[in-house]
Amino acid sequence: MTEALERRVARWLEQLPGWRDVAPYGGGLSAKLFSRRLLCVRYRKAFPEPLLSGEWDRLDTWLDVRCDEIVADAQAIRSAIDRACDKAKRESACLKVNELARRLVDEAARSRLRDSGPTAMELDALADTYLDNTPAPERQLTRKRFETFAPEYDDAWSRDGAFNLLKHPYSAVLLGDDERPPFMKTQRENMWDGLGRSVYYRSQQAIQDDQVLGDAEQIVRAEIARTCGRLGLIDESALVVLYSLMMGILLATQEALKGKNNRLSRASVQPWESGEVVAADEPPVYDMPLTNQALIQFAESVMGQFCRRSKQGQYLRASSQMYRAEAHVMRRAWTDCFAEDRRGDRVTGDRAEQIIRRAIYWGIRSGERHILARSAYITVDPNDGKSTIGVPGELDLDQVNRALDWFAANPQVGIGIVNGDEECIAQYCDAIEAHGLPTLEDIKAFISKGKA
Known about the structure:
There is one protein chain. The chain is an all-alpha fold. The chain is 62% helix and 2% strand. It has 4 domains: 2-134, no CATH class; 143-227, no CATH class; 236-373, no CATH class; 378-451, no CATH class. It has a two-stranded antiparallel sheet. The protein is flat, with a radius of gyration of 25 Å.
C-alpha cells in the first residue's frame, strides 16, 4: 500500500499545470521525493489506517482540497534551491542539489506537521547551514579527478594490499568476500557492503568528515593506504576491537544456541598482557590474531543480553538466523572504527565499549531493516530478457512490518511455520485477518528468501 500510495500521489503531482517548471529534470526536486517525504507523511498522519475500499477516492479528495497549499510549498522549495545554487556558484561551494532538495522537503514536512507552512526564511537558513558544511574547494573531489589515482591504487595493492588480505581475510570477521575492494562503483554504497565499498566511497566519507585533516589529494592517498591495510584500517587498536568483538559475539552465539554448530573454543581466547597485543602461538579454532580479553568478555556479555532480552534477538536465535546478526554487528563496528582511524585517533577502552554496544543494539536492528528493504524478488521475462523487481504476492512493506512485529511477539510461531507445525500455522492464519498480515503462502515465500 505504501509504494502504491506514493506512486499515485506522484502521478497526481506530475499532472499539475506547471509542475515541470517547479521540478525540472536534474533540479533536485521531483514528484517522487515530494510525494514520499512530504505528502504521504502528512496523509498518513491524517489517516493512519488504510481503507479496504475507497482509499484512492479519499486520497484524491485530500489532495484536491490542498492543491493550492501543495503548489505553494513546492514553489517555496524550488526558490530556496535556486537561491542556494546561486550562492554556491558565487562561493565555489560543492552543492549536491538532490541532497539539499531532500533536506528542504523534510523541513517543509516538519512545518506542515506543526500546522504551519514553510517560510522562505526557514528554508534559506537550512540551505545556508548545508552550504556552510560542504567541503571547502580544496577538498572537493570529482570522479574524473579521482580516476587519476587509479595507478597509485594498483601499485599500493600489489605492494601491500594483497599480502594484508591474505593475512587478514575479510571473511574471517564477516566483512565481505576476500577480494580486492573496487576503486570505483557506479551503484550506491552503504555500510552493509562491508569491505566491498570502493576507495572512492571511503574517500568521500573522509572528505565530508571535518575532523579529517588535509586537502582532497592528501585524503585520497591516505584512503588508498588504508584500503590496502589490514582489514582496511591502519591503527592496530581498531583491529583489536574488531577481532575481539568477533570472538565475543561468536562465544555468545554459541552459548545462545546451546552448543549447536560450535565454531569457537574458549581455549582459543588469548590473554591481554601488559597492554600489548598477544597473538596466538598456535592457530585457534577460529583464527583471531589480535585480541583483548576484556573486550571479548564485554562483547560476549552484551551480545548475550541482546539474545536473551530483546524480542529481535529471541527471534533471530529461535529461527537460527544469528549468522545475519553477526554480520550486521561487524559491519556497523567496522564503520565506527573506520571513522576513528581516518581521523588518526586510537580507539580507547571506553570508546571500544561504545562501539561494541552500538554495533550490537543498533547494528542488528538497522541491518535487518536493510535486508527487508532489499528483499524484493527479481524475475526475468523469457520473451525479452528484461528483469523486473517485485515482492512475492504483491507484498507491501506495511504488511511486512506488521508481520515482523507480530513474529517478534510470537517467535515460536515463525519457527513452527517453517517446520510445518499445524497449530502454529492455524495461529498465524487467525492473525492474518485480525492484524492485516500477509497470506500464509506469501509469508512462507518471504521466510524462504530470508533463509536463502
